[in-house]
Amino acid sequence: MDRPLNQDKALYVCMYAREFPAQSLLRFRGELRDKACVVMDGEPPKRYVCSLNSRARKLGIVPGMTQIEIDTFPSVTALPRVKAQEATAKAALLQCAGTFSPRVEDQSNDTYFLCVMDIAGTEKLFGVARTLAENLLERVRALAIVVRITVSRNFHAAVCLARRTSAGNPVALIPAGKEAAVLAMLPLSVLDLSTELAETFSTWGIRTLGMLAALPERSLIARIGQEGKRLSQMARGNWPHLFLPIEPAFKLEEHVALDSPVELLSSLLFILSTMLEQLALRVSARAQALASVTITLFLEGNSQHLRTVRPALPSNDRQLWIKLIHLDFEAHPPQSAILALTVSAEAGIVRKTQLGLFTPPLPEPDRFDITRARIQAIVGKNNAGSATLNDSHHPDTFHLDSFSVPSDVANRAIVSLSRVPMRVLRPPEPVIITLSGNRPLKFSFLGVTYTVVRAYGPWLANSDWWSSTLWGYEQWDLIARTHNGSLIYCCLVHDLIKKCWQMTGLYD
Amino acid sequence: MTDQYIELHAASAFSFLEGASQPEELVKRVQELQMPAMALLDRNGVYGSARFHTSAKRNNIRAHIGAEIAVSGFAPRLTPPAWLPHRHVTEPARVSLLCESRAGYQNLCQLVTQLKMREKTKAEGSATSEDLQRYTGGLICLTGGDEGPLAAALVNGGEEAGREVVERLVETFGPHNVYVELQRHQEREEEWRNQAALRIADSLHLPVLATNGVRYAAAYDREILDLFTAIRHHVELDRAGRLLAINSQRYVRPASEMAALFHDVSSAIGNTIELSSRLKFELSDLGYEFPRYPVPDGETMDSFLRKRVDEGVQRRYVPKDNPDLLARAKKQVEHELALIQQLGFAGYFLIVWDIIQFCKRNNILIQGRGSAANSAVCYALEITAIDPVGMELLFERFLSESRGEWPDIDLDLPSEEKREQAIQYVYQRYGELGAAMTANVITYRGKSAAREVGKALGFDEESLGRLSSLVSNFEWRGKTDTMAHSFLNAGFDLEHPRIAKYLELSMRIQDLPRHLGQHSGGMVICQGQLNRVVPLERASMPGRTVVQWDKEDCADLGIIKVDLLGLGMMAVIEDCLELIPRHYGHPVDLAQLPDDPEVYKTLQQADTVGMFQVESRAQMASLPRNHPERFYDLVVQVAIIRPGPIVGQMMHPYMRRRQKKEAVTYPHPSLVPVLKRTLGVPLFQEQLLRIAMVVANFSGAEAEELRRAVGMRRSWERMKNLEVKLRAGMTANGLDEATQNTIVQNISSFALYGFPESHAASFARIAYFSAYFKVRYLAAFTCAILNNQPMGFYAPAVLVKDAQRHGLRVKPIDVQISDWPCTVEHESDGSLSLRMGLNYAKGLRKQSGEALVNSRKQAGLFRSAEDIALRVPSLNRKEFTLLARIGAFNKIGDIEHRRDAIWQIERAGRPEGDLLRQHRDSLQDYSEHRPLRQMNIEERMVADYVGTGLTIGKHPMHYRRPQLHQIGVLSARDLRTHKNGEFVRVAGCVIARQRPGTAKGFIFLSMEDETGIANVIITPDLYERERLQVTGSKFLLIEGALQNQDGVIHIKAARIKTLSGNSLEVRSHDFH
């Protein structure tokens, strides 16, 4: 770390906001503050309470309850969890903390916000610790979030005290040397114990930090191992801490506002090229490459046009990027002139290929990317790939897998049975049919009328009866004759769901 | 040309997940189509054949029997080609066999037994080619559909390979016994196989046979088959793909459809009629013979039985010193022996006698129950313990000339080991292939159906778990307890098509077989080889074999069974017989227990926790009214709290008459001797028989036929004929029409549920034993009942509290004294006390517990925590902590209290490794300081309940009494002094919840406090409102009106509240 640990001079401020998912949602919803509210997480039907306000708690609701259990309580407002809102609230709190100290450690988890600031040496700037804490509280209140702030010479003591669950003074200071005394009454739950240890202490009848601190440390270590030492010292408020300040997030983003609206793609690509160069420089400084690039075009008429390009492998090759983006814009051009653009990128690990001496050269992945992008620009992204048959009785169903090198080339012995060649019509051609009973008698195909000479079938296939995709076909193999005597050998399908007849194939 | 067609290849749901209809459904469909016969071929067995046969007989359809047998010698079963994605697994092809004669059926049974018994455990198995060659006689072989060897060979090796397979089959079964099978399910792939099969049949001059390879009765049931396929392969329907059927054509097709399908090969249709006429075998021609009992030279089974019975009569009746009784007994025995000889049942009685003798030799307590107690022969042979002559029981209820079936003897044994010993004796005596357990077909029920269908439809585990927990388990179902309601409660939207399908499928698969289990005690025994009568297979339990039919199937086909049932109370009595002489100094003889007024007094007060049959809430509620004073009152007591008498509205009239609140009347003066014992109210099946005999001059056998006709729901026609006869007899005896109506009404409402008096007497005897032991030998009885848990109605916690209230001192688990089971100890003042055994330390493994006891016995008491850790290395840390927490170490060395023990044991349970042992001194914990505080009362109680499920300390409610007293909450004892109709408040720990089928949705709670048990009635409305509290809370506060009538006390709940603040989770026994 950049500064040596010095317990004597250290001074920490801890800021703790409980029920953070609920708080972050309710800060803009004043009308709900006086009502019992819960925040539900998970996908239906697995939704459960992840956070709640104090009114809901008073009703007897506890985290983990399901939607059905919540429904049994009258007048509870259930809100879905919005992580983005939590992230912005958290960013705001951290930013606020950052204005009081450059060294901030984030110890939040999924349900609470907790950060600790190292404020040693800030006295001349912000006044004594209490003043700083009260100013901080004032600033945070403006963000409409309820927090508890504690100050201590010991990092963990500050954290433990802040996490005390009972309500009280929002700002608490632990006088130097009084850590053990202040912590003594706190419940063990502030230590985030493992289930096993929590059970052990409960069996021992140890409920508070004071009781834990009173246990002889050596005896404790003999029973629960080195963890005993840590817990014992934490309970006394003298366990040292290695401060891990957060670093500013690494964000690859560039924004350019144009002096005048641009309509030509070539002009845009010129600007893009320089922006990409900047991004590539920054990303390569971290020995990484650009994995994907998202371009947001701000257009005339207050609209946006957003495109993301992602090659098979990360690359810093500017020419490649320009080519791919060019192809993408050709396929999806913006609808009006461009006023500004933002380019953001994701970083990825650079490709490392170890080629063997006798390994046949593979095609350049970059060129493959360009070819594939060209094809996709024409046929659509989901219409290019390698076709794979589905495991279904449904005739002709398949899906497209992305291209991959097959792991093994199976030698599949196909028993040579005499098979009749068939030309499959894609898409099938509709026919007009005359039936006798259920059997085809005559049909009209591509304007020619055929009389059925022999009919084999029907071959029946239907399935997916449990789902909305149910299907059913009746197939007939027919020998039919035109009025001039020429024969046709064909396969007709009667779609039982759509109730239509189609020609699907011709036998040679 | 013909409108005649017979389906000769059908499979039912007894092909376990490869067929979708019950055999009865197939028969029903066949009857609708007016098909004269059908053949059932299930996978590797004849599981469904008994039901198929019985149902077909009832509908005048010929039931041909066969099976599809997996044979490993052929190419594996047809799967889609490798280039198509699919999830098929390799399975052996199955040869379809039909039984032409009894010899053929016997061969089939042996073949199936051979392939099943080759497996070491319960498994599907397959036959080898050698097996197939060994058992060919009397069997007709079909080449099969897509499951068969011909289809597999054609696809894998072409027509040549197909011809070779058929030639092999011809070689095995003979040219006249092989049919080339054609199936047309309108599948393109199938047809080219058919064309090849036709050419092969032609070239080998074999007949062709059309079948439809039926797997379900109606086309719609294909959905069930697809669902079962998904379940069988553990995949979701969405991902099952080609495993599923391609279409819905495998239903029972009418002859006209088959004729149209096979218009080009009409001989294939004609041959079904011809082959059907060749198949002479039916299951009624089973050839079953019960084993003959080996008797000494010069004796017949009848003469041998007569001698044993004569000896028994001397032994049983002579000591009673009643010449009249002896004479009557001799006469009755004569009558019975004559009938037994006439019906040829002597061997059966001797075999049961042999089992009894084995048990007696090995000190296993055994007693017959059920209608066997009506027989003086059974009494003389010591099969039963009730004297039917003395009690004037009716023999015809047990055995009669016209019954046309074997008598049924059920034997009660102490559960587990002793019962297993008796079962193994039967196996050993009649051989592995001469005796087997009857099967128990496990079928889909609400929960299992909802779970498996949900899985197949791709619902997530959590939703399924929630749904399962909501499917009601109570016996009584309210209108909101339907499956649809459970779906709604679980948050499923029934409007959604997939969920609607889910619900529909869950309901449609109800009662369809899932797999075969083992019946708890039914054994079938056969003369010669049982495996020629019905196939045997391995049960999941090692050393057990099971037949492919269940109890009812065996009974329908006249196969005799002996039920060896486990009865927990028998084990308790057996333990008491051992404990009483050891600790009380005198032996007890069950046959000589006196009629003890003290015992009857206890029964009259309904102080019956732990007593056999009379301990339930309903029994307790009726005991004060019935006020038993002699043994026969107890027989009535056991019989009266049953669905039959309650539904038949017999209970209340009897009770009113018993309390002299209503005059004793009889439907007719001639019935006075019959109904006198039960105060004019018919309670027992025997009385019904006697009524018919007295008022309508029925013979014993006819009366028994009447009872059975009433009991069987499907025999209304038979019942009508008998009713005509009954009325004619009554008219002849001068009974007026009103009386006749009353008697007919009595018979029809009662016979369905009535209880045999003999059975009630056998159970009442055990009930009296348990009551006697509890009253006279409380320490021994409590010790025995605690060592035989789980059993009975109450949890051990309740039994212990009850024993303590009766003055028994119960002492805690102590590693210095306790054995693995609970034991009786002698106190210095001469009284006896109970020491809890290590078996009550929840989570302590038996081997660790026994190691601890052995070490103590060999090397003396434990000196310290470290000493025990060193001497009993098998104890792990969890077990140490558990024992310390429940106070089992409190008497070791310098240990002062439970937490002190925990502190020391945490150190002793973590010995240092070898590396550090040399520096052991530096690691020693020399500190004398004991830093942990002693547990307070509540903590000790919680530790007791968590660690042992009970506390021998004060009841949890005791500690709250002052506080409860302040808010006017009464104790269970206080209730006795309050008046009927008073509004009261009670609180307690819920020990049992019941929702009986006869109580119209009412719920009965039993709540215990430190003074006793209070009974609460909850109305269906209140239950609907407070469902969560009623089913979820352990401690409740109830307010409501007190019902205090005739010493029977209830609270009719008006309000229910959870009693908060208890950190205990006490278990209740919930009965459904």
Level of helix content of chain A? 25-40%
Query: What's the main sheet of chain A like?
Result: 7 strands, antiparallel
Can you give the mean pLDDT of chain B? 87
Give the end-to-end Cα distance of chain B, rounded to a whole number of Å: 59 Å
Assembly annotation: heterodimer
Largest sheet of chain B: 7 strands, mixed
Helical/strand content category of chain A: alpha+beta
Number of strands of chain B: 23
Write down how many β-strands of chain A occur, each being a DSSP E stretch of 2 or more residues: 21
Shape of chain B: globular
Average pLDDT figure of chain A: 84
Number of helices of chain B: 44
Biggest protein-protein contact in the assembly: A-B, 44 and 60 residues
Structural class of chain B: alpha/beta
In one word, what is the shape of chain A? elongated
The low-pLDDT segments of chain A are: 1-7, 409-415
What is the topology?
The complex is a heterodimer of chains A (508) and B (1072).
Chain A: E1 12-17, H1 20-26, E2 36-41, E3 48-52, H2 54-59, H3 67-71, E4 76-80, H4 83-98, E5 104-106, E6 113-118, H5 123-126, H6 129-142, E7 148-152, H7 155-162, E8 171-173, H8 179-183, H9 195-204, H10 209-214, H11 217-224, H12 226-236, E9 252-262, H13 265-284, E10 288-299, E11 303-309, H14 318-331, E12 338-349, H15 365-379, E13 386-389, E14 398-401, E15 422-430, E16 432-436, E17 439-445, E18 448-463, E19 471-481, E20 487-495, E21 500-507
Chain B: E1 7-10, H1 23-32, E2 37-43, H2 49-58, E3 62-70, E4 94-99, H3 102-118, H4 129-134, E5 139-142, H5 149-173, E6 178-183, H6 188-204, E7 208-211, H7 222-232, H8 237-240, H9 255-261, H10 266-278, H11 301-317, H12 323-343, H13 346-361, E8 367-369, H14 376-380, E9 409-413, H15 417-430, E10 435-443, H16 446-456, H17 461-470, H18 483-489, H19 497-508, E11 513-525, E12 536-538, E13 545-550, H20 551-556, E14 561-566, H21 568-584, H22 597-604, H23 617-626, H24 631-640, H25 643-647, H26 651-658, H27 672-675, H28 685-696, H29 700-711, H30 716-732, H31 737-751, H32 757-776, H33 778-787, H34 796-805, E15 809-811, E16 823-826, E17 832-835, H35 846-859, H36 865-871, H37 877-885, H38 898-908, H39 914-917, H40 920-923, H41 937-948, H42 956-966, E18 983-994, E19 1003-1009, E20 1012-1018, H43 1020-1025, H44 1027-1032, E21 1035-1045, E22 1048-1058, E23 1069-1071
Parallel strand pairs in B: 1-2, 2-3, 5-6, 6-7, 9-14, 10-13, 15-17, 18-23, 20-22
Antiparallel strand pairs in B: 3-4, 4-5, 8-9, 10-11, 11-14, 12-13, 16-17, 18-19, 18-21, 19-20, 21-22
Helix pairs in contact in B: 1-2, 5-6, 11-12, 16-17, 16-19, 21-32, 21-33, 22-32, 24-32, 28-29, 32-33, 33-34, 36-38, 37-38
